[in-house]
Fold this protein.
Amino acid sequence: MYVRDLYGEEYPIQCTSTWKGALNGQIELTATIEWNEVNETFIHDLAEMWVIADHDDVEYKIIYCKKQGKGDKLTSSIRAIPLFIDVFNTQRIYDVYNQSFTAQAFFDLIFNGSGYNPIIVDSFYAQSWQGLGDGSTRLEPFKNGLNRYGAEFRLSGNNVYLETQIGNDTQIQYRYKLNASNISQEIDASEMYTYIRGYGDYEEGTEDLEHNAGLIREYTSPLANLIGIREAPPIKDGRITDVETMDEALKKVIDESLKISVQANIHDLTKQGYPVGQAKLGDRVFLIDERINLDEEVRIVDMSVTKDWKGNILDINITFGTQSLTKRYQSNLNSAAKSIRDILEGRIKLPYNVLDQAVINATKALQSAETELKFENGIIAVDPNNPNHLVIYNSAGLGVSTDGGQTFENAITYLGVNTNLLTAGQIHTNNIQIIGDENYFYWDGTSLMAINPNDAQRYVELKSSGLDIAKGAINIEREDGAVFVQNGTPNMDFNIDWGSPDYTGSGVVRTSDPSYYYRTHHADYRFMTLGFFTHTSRYVKIRLGMVAPTEATSIDVKISEFGNPSGEIWSGSYMPRTYTTIDLTLDFGVPDMTSRKGIYIQFKSSHQDVDVFLRRQWSYKHL
């Protein structure tokens, strides 16, 4: 550990520290710093706004510092928050954004210029935002983004990883009387629900959603058959237009309405060979206490860890949360855990003939080379012809050295693979297959191919000759966030439906002299026509032709949105003595691809009882 003053000077530190953190919640580091020969170099100057780094080299900003005497020496108590949180809470976004963002675009915007990098690990649905920024700190939209996209974050240096669920599925067990004590389970059913409705796809200010919302969905829990219907407050969000997104939101509210949490004090048995100290925030572990009939997989949602100055764990307190009322992959998980325990405890072993041939060959090769390996602080392999060339493998990773072990360039660590050490004239792709939980991905010497596991005829294939897309396996999003192509179908048309017969107001007549115009002699605005279109394009282009033949008379034209005649989109005043045309481009904002829009065209004469003439020459939607 070290501290850094306001001038950038760093000092080593010896102290007992406590790290506290919750999933997507407050994270802080507290420490008591006592006087000793190491700390005396800075303890008198230690103050707020200094930086302290923990045993994992994550930096924190000191926001509270209390100094007091202990005997004839000085002791300081500090509280610090991650430097990332401090930066995001003191930098602001001044521009205003009203549009749809993918998760990548959204977090790129929030992080831009902050010194931190967002790394999107999983896939998230795009979300529409109104009033984003407008002088808010970076931290406010960051927290809102986590909630809206359903993401969790973890810090690693200057990288912020965003995942649907941080942590790992582990085989770690916490058991009463072994490595856990004071286990308590809390179940809060005060706000437990079994039924919910959701309203989406409507404009802001819309009333009576039961009849006016474009999307209405409902969800009933299977538990309703057991405990009856318990209705949750409805979800009302006009920005939700997708059925799947709404259904997921409804199910999440019901599944999480029963609050179940478990707390326990954990005892560090790492030195006895038990991997308790390896569990981290978000990990899934097993918690067992026969006294309260508790034996299930739980998730670490809150924890505090106290360490001494050497990094040894002194105390751990963990709050667990169950994933839901029914555990994910329960039967498979239980049987897999039993088999793994049997293997680890020596009751069974894997038969040699079930191993892949490549594994068998590798095993033989390693066994034959055993005499060239040294088992010192891991496994060290030394080139018998050049002792300066060696490879070391231990719990920190895999390292390669060319100077006899004086320095190592990490090739593989828990953070990933360092491709600085990847050397290849050619990489031969002999039908590489990447098979996930929901998708198949193939890569050979001729093409890249992604196949839908439920329909082998729905695929995307990239070859040197071009890109082949089958059965609508493509979505294309525009730069402004609107979905241009969905499931292979373009969300577009260029038509505007003008009234037939035209929607003309009183005092407006159609004339063939001159040349098929609409004529009015009134000095107040009169309707010439009304048109409707689906909002699949942002712009509407119109060409108007006009004549105001009488000297000193002008023709005034106004275009308004349907349903709001006073909501003017455009207006202009002209004095065309002969036939004149004007071209207009009207902006209706980011397309939502579903709503219907309408526009009025109105005109008037600048002088009562003096004729002016107007016509619509052409019109179409654009982009």
About this structure: The radius of gyration is 34 Å.
